């Protein structure tokens, strides 16, 4: 789907979940200023509308789905996971927290119960993911890279400080399961990320952002559970 200059920011934010983040980054207000056309809004801020549209279109094509990661080295895949999926969490989780706070203060009186439930599950998921990605980046991924480097140089690597690489992998897999359960719970609480009819643009952006988080996290966990981790176990 192509974006035209005459489409409004509100329409674009609704049709392309990835657009919300890009518009926010450019200071293009899709919420209160959502009725402005992309071309006009970009002109006001001295931006090139074609560049903004192009960025949204390519972000919406779906993340790393295009490459066959089975053919890559484990080191390349680990770097890709960190650059793409861990950095995504690093920017998205605080943004979603801020959106959730905003929606709770505006709609707490009417939708308090649902928003409380979302906040409870989301806050626990955020804490767990922040710790989880740190463990992968500081312990497991560097170890996998070292094993691959040792093999490329035809030498046997040093013994793992944690016994076998299967130990941290099982720990990470357990945490993936818990994250998957939290996502399923969020989907249930939000009725499949369907905002109520009275939801404002930020409310809608919160649901769209949570759904994008789910999509990205599913792909992220798939790359680790099904490609990176089995590859590391074979290598050992
Ligand atoms: Fe990860
Ligand atoms: Fe992970």
Can you describe this structure?
It is globular, with a radius of gyration of 20 Å. The chain is built from seven helices and no strands. The protein has two domains: 9-60, no CATH class; 71-235, no CATH class. It is mainly alpha-helical. One fe (ii) ion is lined by residues 81, 85-86, 133, 136, 220, 224.
| End-to-end distance | 45 Å
Shape: globular
Helices and strands, in order, run as HHHHHHH
* Number of helices in the DSSP assignment: 7
The structural class is: mainly alpha
- Report the major sheet: none
- Report the average pLDDT across residues: 91
β content, as a range? under 5%
Q: What number of structural domains do the residues give?
A: 2
The Cα radius of gyration reads 20 Å
User: What is the chains' assembly state?
Assistant: single chain
For the secondary structure, the number of strands is 0
Helical content class: over 70%
Bound molecules: fe (ii) ion
Unreliable residue stretches: none
């Amino acid at each position: 789907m192509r974006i035209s200059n005459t489409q409004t920011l509100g329409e674009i934010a609704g049709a392309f979940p990835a657009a919300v983040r890009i518009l926010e980054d450019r200071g293009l207000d899709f919420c209160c200023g959502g009725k402005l056309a992309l071309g006009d809004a970009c002109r006001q801020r001295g931006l090139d509308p074609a560049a903004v549209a192009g960025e949204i279109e390519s972000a919406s094509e779906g993340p790393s789905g295009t490459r066959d990661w089975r053919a890559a080295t484990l080191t390349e895949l680990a770097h890709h996971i960190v650059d793409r999926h861990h950095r995504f969490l690093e920017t998205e989780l605080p943004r979603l927290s801020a959106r959730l706070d905003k929606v709770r203060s505006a709609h707490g009186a009417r939708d308090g119960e649902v928003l409380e439930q979302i906040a409870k599950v989301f806050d626990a998921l955020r804490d767990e993911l922040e710790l989880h990605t740190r463990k992968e980046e500081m312990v497991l991924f560097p170890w996998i890279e070292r094993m691959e480097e040792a093999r490329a140089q035809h030498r046997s690597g040093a013994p793992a400080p944690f016994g076998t690489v299967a130990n941290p992998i099982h720990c990470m897999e357990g945490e993936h399961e818990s994250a998957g359960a939290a996502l399923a719970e969020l989907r249930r609480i939000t009725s499949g990320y369907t905002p109520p009819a009275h939801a404002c643009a930020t409310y809608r952006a919160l649901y769209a952002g949570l759904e994008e988080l789910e999509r990205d996290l599913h792909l992220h966990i798939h790359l680790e559970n099904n490609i990176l981790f089995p590859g590391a176990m074979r290598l050992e």
